Amino acid sequence: MSKDREFLWRRLHSLLGIIPVGLFLTMHLFINLTAAGGAESYNAATANMEKIPFLILVEWIVIYIPLMFHAFYGVYIAFTATPNTGRFSTYRNWMYSLQRFTGVFLVIFIAWHIFQTRIQKALGTEVDYDMMANIVSNPFMLGFYIVGIISATFHLSNGLWAFLVSWGIIQSPQSQKIATYVTNIIFVILSVVGVAAILAFV
User: Is the pTM of this model over 0.85?
Assistant: First the structure.
């Protein structure tokens, strides 16, 4: 792969990780948080999403295709990258390595989540509060989902920092330091929302 083409692929990979994948993740977590209001609240929220016109087409164009590109190209990046945490154990180098580790883990987690929900829906199972409550009634699955959610919120928030740097939006050390604080706050907020949402099904 030429350097120019790789540069463009990496830019596209970075962009799709924020828009639309990151936006969808954020919306998904907040919709799931409606489970804190009980089964009726959650089922009503998900029912409203099902009313989106041409839902299947929208899901593929806005979610699945960008997600697959981001995931598969991300795995390629993860296995071709050269982490330097052994020589330079700085905060940002560790974030770099964790970004790739969580990315690989999320490929597995998201594939399993889609299998348990969207594919089961395609096979005729109702995706509702009871389905999720049944899934996380298994302590192993509850732990798996909590780790998956935190991995996703970290990957998004740290990926947002990398996006701002790689696209030249933040360049000075001071602006990058401020962005680190902001993205860490985003990580904490989304993690609290996500974990609270999954625990609402318990």
Answer: yes
